[in-house]
TrEMBL record:
SUPFAM superfamilies: Flavoproteins (SSF52218). The lineage of its organism: Eukaryota, Viridiplantae, Streptophyta, Embryophyta, Tracheophyta. Its cofactor is FMN. It holds the Pfam family FMN_red. Gene3D superfamilies: 3.40.50.360. It catalyses: a quinone + NADH + H(+) = a quinol + NAD(+); a quinone + NADPH + H(+) = a quinol + NADP(+). Residues 1-48 are annotated as: Disordered. GO terms for cellular component: membrane. InterPro entries: Flavodoxin/NO_synth, Flavoprotein-like_sf, Flavoprotein_WrbA-like, FMN_Rdtase-like_dom. PANTHER family: FLAVODOXIN-RELATED PROTEIN WRBA-RELATED, NAD(P)H DEHYDROGENASE (QUINONE) FQR1-LIKE 2-RELATED. Residues 60-248 form the Flavodoxin-like domain. Its EC number is 1.6.5.2. It comes from Trapa incisa. This is NAD(P)H dehydrogenase (quinone).
Length: 258
């Protein structure tokens, strides 16, 4: 301390910065700042939260055969009804075609939508519920759908489909062409697999009793009149298909409650 009370520089000399092997002087290392902010123990202790588990949805397979698109139109609208129920989703599949391309061309069948995959019989076991759609052939299901059912022998032997809910929707050419018989003759397929047939009954309400227009469908399931192939599904027929999808989704949810 000097006479004037001021600070006197220290006479102790600091050591020079170290030199490397080539004699070059390196900068002295910086001293740590004693006033540096310490890490917040609360923030540093926090760990990223694991992602919330995504609850798997119940899946209803909509398995159909459609030559001219009428059954496919019902299937797409049916998926809308299924997807509208929380926790359930509809998945569209088509069964394999059995007719050669040249025959389909002569029958003027339009090309099939490549966005809808073909299904194999063994894949049915992955579904929580199934809706089968097909056109009629003399009051029974088309051969393409029957051929598909015939491929499920291994599932039958192992009873992999037993207890699964299932329903039908159909297409016929005329009012007397099999809107009911096409569905109820198909029930034998479900019975041998031990599946649960889920008809819609009269749950569609007033729409089941309307007589002011031609409408396909019955208590067995949704339906459409194709006529000579040029008639498109009416809004009432599509609405019935959507209702069936929604109704089936509620049944599947009920059956899968713990």
């Amino acid at each position: 301390m000097g006479k004037g009370g001021g600070c006197v520089p220290s006479k102790k000399k600091r050591p020079p910065p170290p030199a490397n092997a080539e004699g070059e002087v390196r900068d002295a290392p910086l001293e740590a700042d004693s006033h540096a902010a310490e890490a917040d123990p609360v923030v540093s202790a926090q760990k990223p939260l694991p992602p919330l588990p995504v609850e798997a949805k119940l899946r209803i397979f909509i398995v159909f055969y459609s030559m001219y698109g009428h059954v496919e139109g019902l299937a797409r609208r049916m998926k809308k009804g299924i997807d509208g129920v929380d926790g359930v989703e509809g998945v569209l599949y088509r069964v394999p075609e059995t007719l050669p391309e040249d025959v389909l061309e002569k029958m003027r069948a339009p090309p099939k939508d490549a966005g809808i995959p073909e299904i194999t019989g063994t894949e049915l076991a992955e579904a929580d519920g199934i809706l089968f759609g097909f056109p009629t052939r003399f009051g029974a299901m088309a051969a393409q759908m029957k051929s598909f059912f015939d491929s499920t022998g291994q599932l039958w032997r192992e009873q992999k489909l037993a207890g699964k809910p299932a329903g039908f929707f159909v297409s016929t050419g005329t009012q007397g062409g099999g809107q009911e018989t096409t569905a109820w003759t198909a029930i034998t397929q479900l019975a041998h697999h031990g599946m649960l047939f889920v008809p819609i009954g009269y749950t569609f309400g007033a729409g089941m009793f309307k007589m002011d227009s031609i409408r396909g469908g019955s208590p067995y399931g949704a339906g459409v009149f194709a006529g000579d192939g040029t008639r498109e599904p009416s809004e009432t027929e599509l609405a019935l298909a959507e209702h069936q999808g929604k109704y089936m989704a509620t049944i599947v949810k009920r059956l899968n409650q713990p």
